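Practice problem: predict the structure.
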Amino acid sequence: MKEESEKFSLKRDLGLFPALSTVIGLVIGGGVFFKISSVTAATGSASLTVLVWLLAGFITINAGLTIAELAAALPVAGGIYKYIEYIYGKVPAFLLAWAQSVIYYPAAISALSIVFATQVINLWGLATTLQIPIAIGIAVFLFVANLFGAKVGGGIQSVAFIAKLIPIVVIIAVGLFTPSTNAVSLFPVTSGSHPDFWTSLGAGFVATMFAFDGWMNVGNMAGEMKHPEKDLARSIIWGLLAITLIYVLISFVFVKELPFNTIPGNQNAASQAAIKIFGNIGGKIVTIGILVSVFGSINGYTMTGTRVSYVLGADDNIVFAKFFAKLTKNTRVPLNAGIVQTVIAIIMIFLGTFDYLTDMLVFVMWIFSVMMFVGVFILRKTQPELPRPYKINFYPIPPIIAIIGGGYIVVSTLIRQPGLAFMGIIITLIGLPIYWIHEHYKNLNE
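Answer:
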């Protein structure tokens, strides 16, 4: 482990503030604007809507702190892939990378492309029949843009990071103090017309989790931090607290500005709230800012997703390894991995809706997340001597909370959406024969 850590050692020059900015930038994406429709549909009331965002933030903070211990103890290139491999072995690690390659990243790209197209249609009053062509167009455009090199993709991300914060800050700052004709009561917390409070609470909680997507990557900074034993936990706590506060406030503004019964199932709720707050012209300008934010989120998934299947190919861990390891000649970015990812995303655009796709990727990734939470207990028991620059405070409470929260997401999805869960599990398990076939032929050739 020591040799591997040295091999992948990174320059430790990251302080608290850049780490904090990274946490916020990783997590905040398109979900903050568009998950409000499914969250309100699940909760049935403004009060429960606000509560589930708080609950999701609480679970995510504990999950992030749990992963932080793994990240600090195993500061190697590869992030969660390496954590799973170190704790459970190569087969589960391959299944994680496989699931990321064929479900997680393509589903995120397709889901966000769908909402991007929906907002373009709403903003310019285009025909709804253009949704799929626009969604495919943006997915293909960003794939092609990233072929021009990491500098181009990174530049898009930098612009989008600023753009995503502008509409959020403006909507919150102005929306909180804008008079509203809608009476919003946060207490007592009820499920409105929904008959079962706890079912509504659970469904609303699950619906929020795509907006927190990205938290699993916050621990990847451990190898680059000057003082991970102090700053890693601080950046995660303060970063995810800030994100939770942003989500709670902007959700409150949405339910404050719009009649509650117009929000469930309405993916244009964010732009409609912006128009109501700022007027038609101002609202359209803010909506354009939201579009740029979603554009950047799609770009982020496009840019990072191709690296997963590329690494599998470069390390000869997948069939057609040389195919997936192929890079563009001049810019040296993954070519075939990007083509496959984009094709899968286009297929998903035809087959799924925003909520269906995001629910599937959340379900699959939380299975592996729970495995990592349990892994903290395994390593504490089997390798107590392992250096841990950061150790979870109040252990074992945070990982237990994370396991309960993650377990609920998995079990709840299995019960409420068995078809979706079955599809996610089957696609993930298809990776097993692919892995075994490749290993068999690799061993024959050695």
